[in-house]
Automatic annotation (TrEMBL):
Belongs to the acetyltransferase family. The keyword RNA-binding does not apply. Residues 11-193 form the N-acetyltransferase domain. It holds the Pfam family Acetyltransf_1. CDD domains: NAT_SF. Transmembrane segments: none annotated. One of its GO terms (molecular function) is acyltransferase activity, transferring groups other than amino-acyl groups. This is N-acetyltransferase domain-containing protein. It comes from Malus domestica (Apple). Keywords: Acyltransferase, Transferase. The lineage of its organism: Eukaryota, Viridiplantae, Streptophyta, Embryophyta, Tracheophyta. InterPro entries: Acyl_CoA_acyltransferase, GNAT_dom, Plant_NAT. The keyword DNA repair does not apply.
Amino acid sequence: MGEDNGRVFSLVVREFDPSKDCEMVQNVERRCEVGPSGGLSIFTDLLGDPICRVRHSPAYLMLVAELVGEDKDKEIVGMIRGCIKTVACGKKLSRNGKNVTADDVTLKPLPVYTKLAYILGLRVSPFHRRMGIGLKLVQRVEEWFRENGAEYSYMATENDNQASVNLFVDKCGYAKFRTPTILVNPVYAHRVKLSSRVTVIHLSPSDSEALYRRRFSTTEFFPRDIDSVLSNRLSLGTFLAVPRGSVTAETWPGADHFLADPPESWAVLSVWNSKDVFTLEVKGVSLVKRMLAKTTRLVDRALPWMQLPSVPDIFRPFGVHFLYGLGGEGPLAAKFVKALCGHAHNLAKERGCGVVATEVSSREPLRLGIPHWKSLSCAEDLWCIKRLGEDYGDGSVGDWTKSPPGMSIFVDPREI
């Protein structure tokens, strides 16, 4: 029981009911997106589907916090979303023979998998904060995680979001874990010219899966159901960049043959169409900045041959293409990633998107090849993690929460 403006109420945390909760949930989202100072904010339009950001995960749940008054009036004042999947948390070496030693170059690294839960979309109405509602929502979704066998739970927040950090780290027992970088690039009015030294090949879902499993399955957070990700309707394809003349779409030998004798340098990435899931809109920007951005677009359209970068109209709803599964090998891999990002930019332009975004480890060497605008990007996002129980399937890794960061992470596009 509690009191809100003199009115006695009880708090009920229950599962989201799409048949009756959508309007009230959207009202809470709007109140949360606009900061108390009325300054710059990003509004997210979930296109009428509050579960859209977790819907494509193997298992998901959305909870709402509802105030019930003595007169039986009900008001939704908060919500939380969670999903569960199986991901790589480390690796071990296979030993297929009696005389195999740790120095044997034939040892093959194999992924160690764990069942991981993810919390996102925690919202509490600004008028009902500091009442313990966020804590109750987190505790209840963690109960569901444990009931469904999750071994770890993690969440992502802005590094300077002190309220979120205090809730999860100080009150819920999470530990600061990884600090990836979000890189965002605008989609210009002109097409990006690709290097003539690079060939881009559109891989089939089966070849994409084979390549990812062979080369990147031991990367932290790599989803065991990568096939489901690649075959999802929102995945626009996986693209491979190779030196011109080495292989073409017509001479493509298949992933296994390619990896058996790859070129010295190559790179790969996949594209996820977030535009069909949600749109974003920047609010609270001055008229001067709006006019400056509009001017860049006008010049870009009028003089496309100058290749002048323009600010997209982010002051109206715009879509996002998310780049995931970035990887590559060889001394020129970063340059090949740059070519793939150019290809992804042109794809986004054709499909009417405003920006192209990705998220990579702060130590990722390939980030040097990812075009981005610093003003739109986030140098240090924050991921926090918590171990949920005592029995785990990651014995060879130990406590994942205490492991040092690797060079790369795999960011699942189903959770952005």
